[in-house]
Amino acid sequence: MNKIKFAVVGCGQIGKRHASLINNNPQAELTAIIDIKGTSELNIQQFTAPLFSSLTSFLHSTINTDVIVIATPNGLHALQAIECLKANKHVVIEKPMALSTKDANGIIVTANTYQKKVFVVMQNRYSVPVAWLKEIISKKILGEIYSVQLNCFWNRDERYYKDDWHGTKEMDGGVLFTQFSHFIDIFFWLFNDIKNIHSKLHSYKKLASFEDSGIVTFHFGNNSLGCLNFSTAVWDKNFESSITILAENGTIKIGGQYMDKVEYCHIKDYVMPQMQFSNNENDYGSYKGSAANHNYVIQNVIDVLQNKAAINTTAEEGLKVVDIIERIYKAAT
Fold it and tell me: How far apart are the C-alpha atoms of 216 and 332, rounded to whole Å?
């Protein structure tokens, strides 16, 4: 079959990762890179695809492209996604999908109007232990879920906030949007929506125009208790991203720095299967990110456009994560 043609807009660390994965996939072709910086400044000499200085100039070019990956600052995601959709391109949007439900809805309406597909990057769904957890919850092996606790304790210090858009409300949006939206997606993916939200937020480091730490309590739809405890004020390096589930038939904790290890599993009449834990973290040099599962995202795009699979994370699911984050911030005291 013909290769799926991709362009990447935004060539920071995560944009480069997308470009490399596209380059290395025999079913894909990298047709262009779009960024306001030059080749030497971006250090992208390894790519042969042409570099454009603006998305608009690329869209007005004669280069044929099927999909555009949007890996720019958060505040540009919705505007650029809509521009690409109107140019009859499918889009892959790095998390978060948008910084408001209004903008996320705008993306969905435009995609429906132009009959194009939207893929939202939520790479934690491809984590081996998280996928296993999804399976046993779907099969109700745990029975009634009593409570769920999500802990996200990362380091984001001066090394991270040296980039001019990091830490601004307009372009960054807040810690829950930039750092932890893919963990909130796991909450939603496993247990559906939340209600009765109470949030307490605080800034210890004062490196951004928003909080760096918070505690959020809520209920799931079945009245199970939920708690999100997060911080980017951890000294020097990331500590953990973990989820603990207390249920009728057992207890599970998935932990590690990137929710990539089963730390505890004790379930009635159940033996945990052997798993291959091969996921690595995204390494940005002076700081680390989440699990490096973007290869699965690119492959899903290819499979969907070749009519071999369904979208793993839909625009509607991306919208729901934005909605949950909005409600957490609105509930803050």
Answer: 9
Q: Any idea where the domains of the chain sit in the sequence? A: 4-120, 124-291
pLDDT of residue 182: 93
Q: What span, in angstroms and rounded, lies between the C-alpha atoms of 134 and 41?
A: 42
Pairing relation of β-strands 194-202 and 213-220? antiparallel
Q: What does the alpha-carbon distance between residue 241 and residue 152 come to, in Å, rounded to a whole number?
A: 4
As a whole number, the mean pLDDT across the chain is 93
Structural domain 124-291, CATH architecture: 2-Layer Sandwich (3.30)
Instruction: Report the alpha-carbon angle 99-101-103, nearest 5.
Output: 65
Inter-CA distances, 281 with 93, 120, 203, 285, Å: 20, 19, 26, 12
Phi, psi of 257 (to 5 degrees): -65, -30
The answer for 200, left when phi > 0, alpha when psi is -120 to 50, beta otherwise, is beta
The H or E element that residue 253 is part of is strand 250-255
Closest CA to 19 of 31, 27, 2: 31
Instruction: Please report where in the chains the tokens 């304790």 appear, as a residue.
Output: 153
* CA gyration radius, the chain: 20
At CB < 8 A and 24+ separation, what contacts does 200-209 make? 200/332, 200/333, 201/329, 201/332, 204/231, 204/233, 205/157, 205/232, 205/233, 207/156, 207/157, 207/158, 207/161, 207/167, 208/161, 208/166, 208/167, 208/168, 208/172, 208/175, 209/167, 209/168, 209/169
Tokens of 27: 């079913």
What topology is assigned to 4-120 in CATH? Rossmann fold (3.40.50)
Output the six-digit token pair for 222: 């079945």
Q: Are 245 and 251 in contact (CB under 8 A)?
A: yes
- The yes-or-no verdict on residue 169 having pLDDT over 50 is yes
pTM above 0.85, yes or no: yes
Question: Crossing angle for the helix pair 181-191 and 315-330, nearest 10 degrees?
Answer: 110
3-state secondary structure of 325: helix
